[in-house]
Design a protein that fits this description.
This is Thiamine-monophosphate kinase. This protein is of the alpha+beta class. Helices cover about 35% and strands about 25% of the residues. It has helices at about 5-10, 60-80, 100-115, 165-175, 180-190, 200-205, 220-230, 245, 250-260, 275-285, and strands at about 40-50, 85-95, 120-125, 130-140, 155-160, 210-215, 230-235, 265-270, 290-295, 300-305, 310.
Length: about 325
């Protein structure tokens, strides 16, 4: 199977109804896609790359890999409150494996259709397995959620109920912990099938003062908000939402996973304390639980406290591809 047969079979025909339309009159098949912007909207663009052995294991099911490749990019749009519109896919493959491509495309397009986002172009080549997606979305002018808006006295929230499960799955594969049955599968799903919080991001427009997604660890990612906003924070380490599976582990491992685990793709955001009722309503509208985990303070830096109000050492950092 050649390159153009591969594109036609798995990525053009496989996309179905999202291949073209009024918003995307020209998608795959020309040198460039043609996209009609919505009047009054601003465009948001982000790219993420997944490299075998660095971001995912060689044993991951292709359908789950297709899902995750798009999900981690949609999570960036969610963090900015954007509505997904289009994406491109650059795919390097060791060989044209039809079984792998069929599964990968199924997972990719199932999530794409769930969020109404069209594949509009990209590239394929022979080489080590490497997936790079660029997503494009839009928000009403001036309403994008950014990292730079946190204000003194704001509450800090995190979405979801299983923070840290993806890191616990990694520890399983490293052999440092053991789980079996449903517990094993639940944390593996958290790592391989993250759910981008697109609806929550949209519901928080005009309400959250800042936001970011948790890709490299809660402490490190929250630190980006603090640095861009010129503020500090108090974080209640033991108030972070976690699954029963993670809560059954020793406290040191729980804190490692929830505070610096990464790969969660939940949203961390800030909002004025006076708007707690509105935050709760936005979370309900998006069908996504959120938990208040701290507050913004004037003193620079991040301070961690345990359930008894004692200061915890901040010995955790976010993931760094060139240091980890």
């Amino acid at each position: 199977m050649g390159e153009f047969d591969l594109i036609q079979r798995f990525f053009l025909e496989g996309q179905g109804r999202l291949a073209a339309g009024d918003e995307v009159p020209v998608g795959i098949g020309d040198d460039c896609a043609v996209i009609n912007p919505t009047p009054g909207m601003q465009w948001l663009v982000s790219s993420d790359m997944l490299v075998e052995g660095r971001h995912f294991l060689s044993t991951v099911a292709p359908e789950r890999l297709g899902h995750k490749a798009l999900a981690v990019n949609l999570s960036d749009l969610a963090a900015c409150g954007a509505t997904p519109r289009a994406f491109t896919l650059a795919l390097s493959l060791p060989r044209a494996d039809e079984a792998f491509l069929a599964g990968f495309a199924r997972g990719l397009f199932a999530l794409a259709q769930a969020h109404g986002i069209a594949l509009v172009g990209g590239d394929t080549t022979a080489g080590p397995l490497n997936i790079c997606i660029t997503v494009m979305g839009e928000v009403p002018r001036g309403q994008a959620l950014l990292r730079s808006g946190a204000q003194l006295g704001d509450d800090i929230y995190v979405s979801g109920t299983t923070l840290g499960d993806a890191r616990l799955a990694l520890e399983l594969f490293r052999g440092t912990v053991r789980l079996a049955g449903d517990a094993f599968e639940s944390v593996r799903r958290a790592m391989e099938l993250p759910q981008p919080r697109v609806a929550l991001g949209q519901a928080l427009r005009g309400l959250a003062s800042s936001a970011i997604d948790v890709s490299d660890g809660l402490c490190g990612d929250l630190g980006h908000i603090l640095a861009r906003s010129g503020v500090g924070a108090r974080l209640e380490a033991d108030a972070l939402p976690r699954s029963a599976t993670l809560a059954a582990q020793d406290l040191a491992l729980q804190r490692l996973c929830t505070l610096s685990g990464g790969d969660d793709y939940e949203l961390v955001f800030t909002a004025p304390a006076a708007r707690r009722v509105e935050v709760a309503a936005a979370a309900a509208l998006a069908a996504t639980p959120v938990t208040r985990i701290g507050r913004i303070e004037a003193e620079p830096g991040l301070r961690l406290f345990d359930a008894q109000g004692q200061v915890l050492p901040l010995a955790l950092s976010s993931f760094d591809h060139f240091k980890s």
